[in-house]
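User: As part of a screening pipeline, I want to sanity-check one entry by hand. Below is the sequence and the SMILES for zinc ion. Please return the complex as structure tokens so I can compare it with the automated output.
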Amino acid sequence: MRFMLVVLALISCVAWSAPNSVAILQYHHIGDDTPRVTSVTAQELEAHFAWLQENNFVVLSLADIQKRLAAGEPLPEYTAAITIDDGWRNVYRNGLAVFKKYRYPFTIFVNPKLMAEAPEAYMSWQQLRELQDYGANIANHSNSHWHMTWREASESEEAWRERVRKDVVEAQQLIDENLGEQPKHFAYPYGEYNQALQDILEAEGFIAFAQHSGPWGAQSTMTAIPRFPASAQYASLDTLATKLTSLALPVVEYTPKQPLLSDGRKAPMFAVQLAHTNDFNKGQMNCFAGGKVIQPSWQGNMFRVNLENPVPIGRSRVNCTVPSQSQNGRFYWYSHPFIRADEQGRWPD
Ligand SMILES: [Zn+2]
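Assistant: Here is the complex for your manual check:
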């Protein structure tokens, strides 16, 4: 009996199972008369949903994934989630037929203040209620879609914190009042955050979604969960397939924690500590920065990337990938976001 247990324990150590990895797709507009850079056509959206179905993906709600990751439960081998930012009216007009056909769960992140100010541009509460019948959760994208980390000229740190906290809480109240209590999920406008904002959201009970790419795994920072943009040039299923099947690296720690370059460096570095490198060859990791391919330097299970060229003013990111040895055709994927401010501490939308 004891011998059997030892054998079973050995087998379970040797058998390598893929780490929990969820590809979250991020959409904005659905249509062919909106800015292409943030749009998919209804045909492209349907092609994505059909691909998920044909490739046996399990599409789960963000709340379901959150619960299972917290409980340490294994997720299906191919798991995806669907998110749509801003709540544009074209999402209802052009997406409804696709949502009805596939009945996948999805999350729409809305800005209640903008909905009230520009009802012609955004979905109404009634339309959102209707989408709830076809799998939608409605979540928080701030009240008015501003650059949340920006302090006003004469604003103290304390006043900024209170303004931000109020904005998030008031948006959530409007959402819950109109649609019933929704999961406390927040998507950063423009994907921008800092540690203070993360702390405020965590204190208010939120998990939060960013806009750098990579799969959501057990080790992801729960107030900076990555998502894959799926609009425009990213809508192609050739490249999207690699992202949808990507694996989460076993990240233990990373530095710097915040995207904003605060030390005046224009060509930043970052370092990532991994729990292990069991399933890939370190020499095969490539990091992509502004059209350049960089090989990171390794020290034990930590890799470090030094950018040679300055990053542009605004948001940018470095993506690192390495092929899995056990999961044929799948890549580990890690993305590090940066924001470089101009001399006024600002950057473009
Ligand atoms: Zn947005």
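Points to compare against the pipeline: The two ends are 64 Å apart (CA to CA). DSSP finds nine helices and 19 strands in the chain.
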